[in-house]
Design brief:
This protein is of the alpha+beta class. It is built from 7 helices and 5 strands, in the order E-E-E-E-E-H-H-H-H-H-H-H. Strand 4 and strand 5 form a beta hairpin.
């Protein structure tokens, strides 16, 4: 059957000479895999730019329960990022968060709520003029609640790990913060906060593993 849904591109892989397999987290059915033929050819009417990670799309697609791959009939950009592609800090944060969501978001349950969170978050990242350096930590705290292990207090986040009193105070603020909130954090404290949050994720997400984009994030935001 044909469905119309909004979605956010998670990743794509090359397939054959000119095609791709793209994974899109859809509002209607959660994570879905689609094969898109000929999109990498010079004569293709379908632009590869529509399938770049984190692109927000509206699509009409064929859907079949339990199918690993289906096809897209129509696709258009839902929101055109203005600043995220050209702002090095924002694009680096986006790259880091894309790696996180690819590791953590697997299930189809509560897909509408998860999609809405992802969409509003990345639009916010594109539009905010301050607080970019703290965005990824606030995002991870918020995302954890959709993944089923979100902690509601600094004590839950810290657990038995060491943290300075200053860092614990900042963590308490960030647990309640919104993206637009301005929180003054020194680089060393931000690094400690992120390490605490990532360790929390590692404890709750199977095969969380190493984050390849983390060194780049640290370099750009330092």
């Amino acid at each position: 059957m044909l469905i119309k849904t909004r979605g956010i591109v998670f990743r794509f892989t090359k397939y054959g000479e000119t095609s791709i397999i793209v994974n899109i987290f859809t509002e209607a059915y959660g994570m879905q895999g689609y094969i898109v033929n000929g999109v990498r050819s010079h004569t293709s009417k379908s632009k590869i730019a529509l399938y770049q990670p984190l692109t927000l799309v509206e699509l009409v697609a064929y859907h079949k329960d339990q199918a690993d791959l289906t096809r897209i009939k129509e696709v258009r950009c839902l929101y055109q990022y203005q600043h995220l592609p050209v702002d090095i800090r924002k694009s680096t944060v986006a790259m880091f968060l894309n790696e996180i969501i690819n590791k953590t978001i697997k299930e189809e349950s509560h897909s509408e709520e998860v999609f809405e969170f992802l969409m509003t978050s990345f639009i916010a990242l594109d539009q905010i003029t301050a607080g970019v350096e703290n965005f990824h930590i606030i995002f991870l705290i918020k995302l954890s609640r959709f993944l089923g292990f979100g902690a509601q207090s600094k004590n839950e986040w810290v657990g038995g790990r060491f943290a300075t009193p200053e860092t614990e105070t900042l963590l308490e603020i960030l647990v309640k913060a919104e993206y637009i909130d301005t929180v003054q954090i020194a680089n060393a404290q931000r690094k400690e906060l992120l390490e605490l949050v990532l360790q929390f994720y590692s404890d709750h997400v199977e095969s969380f593993g190493e984050l390849k984009s983390l060194p780049v994030l640290r370099e750009v935001l330092s």
